[in-house]
Design brief:
By secondary structure, the chain is of the alpha+beta class. It contains four helices and eight strands, in the order H-E-E-H-E-E-H-E-H-E-E-E. Strand 3 and strand 4 form a beta hairpin.
């Protein structure tokens, strides 16, 4: 009696297991077939586009510094503190917004002998400010005339607003470059480019124009002047198009 009841139960269980396996195999086969069809039937093309636009700078970033050496750290610091206050006051009175970008106080050694010898201390304080490119030369002269002992950097670049405008231009040109590449490639295969399927914006960069400061020495009354070059803004995109 027990054996008669057990046999049908086992058969039913086996059939259920087989049915489940068959269903899973059929689904996997269908997915694989679909994947294979997409891989072999390509109806899109992806192209990269890059562009660079240039413009005259509308902003000058200037860094000037005061430095001093003394026998002890306190004396070096005090001297620089007095000189930087005079410099800061002159720049502020001229309407510039000044900020500290570097300060250092370090020992100075003589390494010409077998053992290094402490010879004093050096203090350094740097200020940065912005102005228009046309005013950069007179701003540098003002700083030097009021205690600046070093002109660390003069950089001609773009304001945020102008930079955003040029980035838009560069992006538009980069998209055009990507389509041109896609059309050339598709044309070689007797295909045409349709609508955009996806777009990815790559990195963008601004290359400011750096200028080394060179003072004219032939005439004591000569002033500093600059002739800055253009600032470039670049952009890149990756675009996928439908092929027709």
């Amino acid at each position: 009696m027990n054996r008669t009841r057990t046999l049908p139960a086992l058969l039913v269980a086996a059939m259920l297991v087989l049915a489940g396996c068959a269903g899973t195999t059929g689904s996997s086969a269908t997915d694989a077939a679909a994947t294979g069809a997409n891989a072999t039937d390509v109806n899109s093309i992806t192209a990269d586009g890059t562009a660079t636009v240039s413009a005259s700078p509308d902003l000058a970033e200037i860094t000037v510094a005061v430095e001093s050496t003394a026998d002890n750290a306190s004396a070096a610091r005090s001297q620089v503190a007095a000189d930087i206050e005079r410099l800061r006051e002159a720049l502020t009175d001229a309407g510039y917004e000044v900020r500290t970008v570097d300060f250092r106080l370090s020992p100075e050694y003589d390494h010409s002998r077998d053992e290094r010898e402490l010879v004093g201390y050096r203090a350094y304080h740097a200020l940065a400010f912005e102005t228009s490119p046309d005013d950069a030369g007179s701003a540098v002269d003002l700083a030097v005339d009021n205690g600046a002992t070093a002109v660390q950097d003069v950089r001609f670049t773009l304001s945020d607003e102008r930079r955003a405008e040029l980035r838009e231009e560069a992006l538009a040109a980069a998209v055009g470059d990507a389509r041109a590449t896609a059309e050339t490639t598709a044309g070689a295969a007797d295909r045409s480019v349709g609508t955009e399927l996806s777009m990815r914006v790559g990195s963008s960069a601004v290359s400011p124009y750096d200028s080394r400061v060179v003072y004219e020495t032939a005439d004591a009354g000569a002033s500093t002047s600059f002739d800055p070059g253009p600032v470039t803004v670049s952009a890149s995109v990756t675009v996928t198009y439908e092929l027709e």
